[in-house]
Amino acid sequence: MPDLLKDKVVVITGAGRGVGQCIAEYCSQQGARVVVNDLARDEDGKPIAEAVAEGIRQNGGQAIASTANIAQRVEVEEMIQTTVDLWGRVDGLVNNAGILRDRIFHKMSEEEWDQSIAVNLKGCFNTARAVAPFMKEQGSGAMVHMTSTSGLIGNFGQSNYAAAKMGLVGLSKSIALDMQRFNVRSNCIAPFALTPMIMAGIPRDTEEGRERWKILEKMEPEKVAPLVCALIADGGAHINGQIFGARGNEVYFFSQPRPVRTAHIGDGEGINAEAIIDRVFPMFKDDLYPLHRSMDIFSWDPV
């Protein structure tokens, strides 16, 4: 059995199905002891996390299930304390859980906004904050947070999701900066994968929807797990504060915002709005970013 994560303890949220389940199973195969966290239940009312954990145990791995709601800090803290009480440490956290509440912006309700932020951003803060003291004390640890090209690039009808996922990028960078002195690292992944959450939001009755399905059906959730494992493993110990992507057999690396042009107004009058309109905006015209959507940038078929 491979052992890139031998004896490590890894907590994965949203691990009851899709990408999270694949990550939990892959980490177990690499020797990790796994906490399978998912709030959802099946049609019989049974926690889907327990079914995944049981499958891991039947295959010779070590796993426990958790139904903690990551949007509730008390439940998250109880989950992490249970993990430490059982296995003595937490080496990896994978913030994979997420929800969609898609709506074009001028029709989005406050409730749809709040629900998305509560899970997709605050939930990740809750889990990261809960594991941080334990990782600090043991002098090691790795966090992996699932961001999205909906925020990094853009998509229609996802202002709540995009804001949360871009907020998560900022959270990850801040964790990386604050925790590096304790040998704790934090990175982001923007995954492409066909999951139940994604499937529910893409129509099949439009030409655009059908074209998206043709591409997404090739994006297996299993292909995200190796990158997660690599970032948690000791071989990824030098990677911190970065943003990666996983799409089929591709791994890609995202740039981060840095100044690309500068304009100095030094005619003695100082800066003013008229000068910016007349001189600065024309200078920057060829460098402005078009309003791309994710699928405009990732237009090739996955391999």
TrEMBL record:
<dbReference type="InterPro" id="IPR020904">
    <property type="entry name" value="Sc_DH/Rdtase_CS"/>
</dbReference>
<dbReference type="Pfam" id="PF00106">
    <property type="entry name" value="adh_short"/>
</dbReference>
<dbReference type="InterPro" id="IPR036291">
    <property type="entry name" value="NAD(P)-bd_dom_sf"/>
</dbReference>
<dbReference type="InterPro" id="IPR002347">
    <property type="entry name" value="SDR_fam"/>
</dbReference>
<feature type="domain" description="Ketoreductase">
    <location>
        <begin position="8"/>
        <end position="206"/>
    </location>
</feature>
<comment type="similarity">
    <text>Belongs to the short-chain dehydrogenases/reductases (SDR) family.</text>
</comment>
<protein>
    <submittedName>
        <fullName>SDR family NAD(P)-dependent oxidoreductase</fullName>
    </submittedName>
</protein>
<dbReference type="InterPro" id="IPR051687">
    <property type="entry name" value="Peroxisomal_Beta-Oxidation"/>
</dbReference>
<dbReference type="InterPro" id="IPR057326">
    <property type="entry name" value="KR_dom"/>
</dbReference>
